[in-house]
Automatic annotation (TrEMBL):
Official protein name in the record: Rod shape-determining protein MreD
Source organism of the structure: Nonomuraea thailandensis
Residues spanning the membrane: 109-135, 155-177
Region annotation (Disordered) ranges: 179-219
Swiss-Prot/TrEMBL keywords: Membrane, Transmembrane, Transmembrane helix
Length: 219
C-alpha cells in the first residue's frame, strides 16, 4: 500500500463513518478505529500511532463533532501503538516500501487476529470512557442509544452493536493481514528460475622460458 493510499484511508474513514455508517438503522462499526488497526497490524506500532493521531484529528473536526478536539486522536494513537506492539513478533523485519514509505513485514500466526480484534474493541471502549471523563457527554449520550432499527431496545444496545461490529471486522482485518503476510513470504522464498551464471575458464598464460644463469667457467 502506497503512502497516498494510506493518507486517503485515514482522511476518508471519518467522512464515510458520518455519512454512511452512523445513518444505518442496524448500527455499524467504527471505521476510523478499523483503519488505524489495519495500519498498525500491517505497518507496525510507530506507523499505527501516527495514523491514529491523524485519523483521530480528522474525526474530531468532521461535522457534527462537538466534543473536545484531540480526544479521538489520543484514543486512536494509543490504540495504534498498542495493536502494533501486540501484533509484532521477534521475526519481524523492516523493508523499504513504495514512495519512500517505510513498511514492515507482516506478522504471522494468530497474534494479528487477536490483536486486531481486541484493539478495535478497546478503541470503542476508550472512546466512550474519554467522552465521559472529559465531560463532553454523560454516559448514556456517550454510548449513543439504540439504532433506529432497534426501537425499544435498551439504552446500551447501540454501543453493544458498535462494539460487536468493530471487534468482528477487526478480527477479519487481522486474518487478512496474516494471509497477505503468508503469501508474501511464500513468494519471496520461491526458488529462482534464472539460469545461474557460469564463468568460462580463462586460457592458461604462456610460460616464459627461464633464463639460465651463467656462472664462472672453471679451467
Amino acid at each position: 500500500m502506497s503512502a497516498v493510499a494510506v493518507v486517503l484511508m485515514v482522511l476518508l474513514a471519518p467522512l464515510v463513518q458520518v455519512l454512511v455508517v452512523n445513518r444505518s438503522p442496524w448500527g455499524g462499526p467504527d471505521l476510523v478505529a478499523l483503519a488505524v488497526v489495519w495500519l498498525a497490524v500491517t505497518r507496525g506500532p510507530v506507523r499505527g500511532c501516527v495514523a491514529g493521531l491523524a485519523a483521530g484529528l480528522a474525526a474530531d473536526v468532521t461535522p457534527p463533532a462537538d466534543g473536545t478536539v484531540g480526544r479521538t486522536a489520543l484514543v486512536l494513537s494509543l490504540t495504534g501503538l498498542l495493536v502494533g506492539r501486540w501484533a509484532a513478533h521477534p521475526g519481524r523485519s523492516r523493508e523499504a516500501g513504495p514512495a519512500g514509505w517505510p513498511r514492515e513485514a507482516g506478522p504471522a500466526g494468530v497474534r494479528p487476529v487477536v490483536a486486531a480484534a481486541s484493539g478495535a474493541a478497546l478503541a470503542s471502549v476508550l472512546q466512550a470512557v474519554a467522552t465521559v471523563a472529559l465531560g463532553d457527554a454523560p454516559l448514556r449520550s456517550a454510548l449513543g442509544g439504540p439504532p433506529s432499527g432497534f426501537e425499544g431496545a435498551p439504552w446500551w444496545s447501540g454501543a453493544a452493536l458498535t462494539l460487536a461490529w468493530t471487534a468482528a471486522l477487526g478480527a477479519a482485518a487481522g486474518l487478512l493481514a496474516r494471509r497477505r503476510s503468508a503469501g508474501k513470504g511464500r513468494s519471496e522464498t520461491a526458488p529462482s528460475q534464472v539460469t545461474p551464471f557460469r564463468a568460462e575458464p580463462r586460457p592458461a598464460a604462456p610460460s616464459r622460458p627461464e633464463s639460465r644463469r651463467m656462472g664462472p667457467r672453471r679451467v
